[in-house]
Specification:
- It contains 13 helices and six strands.
- It is of the alpha+beta class.
- The longest helix has 18 residues.
- 44% of the residues lie in helices and 13% in strands.
- Helix 7 packs across helix 13.
- It folds into two domains: 84 residues, 434 Repressor (Amino-terminal Domain) (Orthogonal Bundle), CATH 1.10.260.40; 186 residues, Beta-Lactamase, CATH 3.30.450.
- Strand 1 and strand 2 form a beta hairpin.
Length: 294
């Protein structure tokens, strides 16, 4: 996982004195960004305190101090939230087995109400597929069994598929952009749930098995995942361009409903074909692949 000090240092290295109007008078510098003393002075804290904070030796940091550091480091809203999440962690948080994730009945009702014409997927906090309708399954993972979300131990993992499954990687024409979003969102999630052993294991596995993931994780980028565009070369219907939007669930804030809408007439036709093909022979009771009960 990530510590407060590691995140602070990565962001301190990114801010140059010139960006914030700090005069250096042409002196040579041994750090790529701000020195600790410079950041501390600009944020209104003592250099000694900031050093202890970055080294994990300070027990607490007030919201006012964190907001001041975020201002100097030019953090956006999501990065600032991540900074606060990291500051609330204990110095060495212990990992524990998280509770099993199940989609809320109201989420499943929403998924059913969308029907098969609108592709949709329900994702858990680690990017596991908790449920999907048949067109959502056909769009993003038709090579995976439709019933896979029923098995809590074998649910499809979107991050794993993105970095370790060649079928998934080959399908996305804008894979590098989407991959960066996946990594940045995993970092945000790790800050929210520092004791989740399964999440830590997922990040460790991807770091060890994917050079691309390791390089993207090392950048320290953090971002939310709410909207975006996917350009696919789908094995069944060819070129497809869709926007995705994420609906957060008040009853289960860890879970997201991701819905896909076409960007052009060709893509709309392709989704209709996927809907027609995926619905053939479908039983009324099996509209959604999901872990819960109706």
């Amino acid at each position: 996982m990530e510590s407060l000090g590691t995140f602070l240092k990565s962001r301190r290295d990114r801010v140059t004195p010139a960006e914030i109007g700090l005069l250096t008078y042409g002196t040579s510098r041994r750090v790529p960004g701000l020195r600790r003393e410079e950041l501390a002075q600009l944020a209104g804290v003592s250099p000694g305190y900031y050093t202890r904070l970055e080294q994990g030796q300070a027990e607490t940091a007030s919201d006012q101090v964190l907001d001041a550091l975020a201002r100097v480091l030019r953090l956006d809203r999501v990065e600032t939230a991540h900074l606060h999440n990291l500051a609330r962690q204990s110095v060495k948080p212990g990992l524990g087995e998280p509770p099993r994730e199940e989609p809320h009945p109201r989420v499943l009702t929403l998924l059913d109400s969308l029907g098969g014409a609108t592709p949709a997927v329900v994702l858990g906090r680690r990017g596991d597929v908790l449920a999907w309708n048949r067109t959502g399954h056909a769009l993003v993972a038709e090579h995976v069994p439709f019933e896979a979300p029923h098995d809590p131990q074998g649910r499809p993992s979107v991050p794993r598929m993105f970095f370790l499954d060649p079928h998934t990687r080959d399908m996305y024409r804008n894979w590098p952009d989407l991959a960066k979003v996946h990594v940045a969102y995993l970092r945000l999630t790790a800050g929210r749930y520092p004791t989740d052993a399964r999440l830590a294991g997922l990040i460790g596995e991807l770091t060890m098995r994917s050079v691309d993931f390791g390089a993207m994780w090392a950048t320290g980028d953090v971002a939310d995942c709410t909207t975006g565009t996917m350009h696919l070369q789908h094995p069944t219907v060819g070129s497809v361009s869709v926007d995705y939007q994420v609906w957060l669930q008040p009853d289960s804030p860890d879970h997201r409903v991701e819905i896909y809408t076409p960007n052009d007439a060709t893509s709309a036709d392709a989704l209709r074909v996927l809907h027609q093909q995926s619905g053939r022979g479908e039983e009324p009771e099996s509209r959604t692949g999901r872990a819960g009960q109706r």
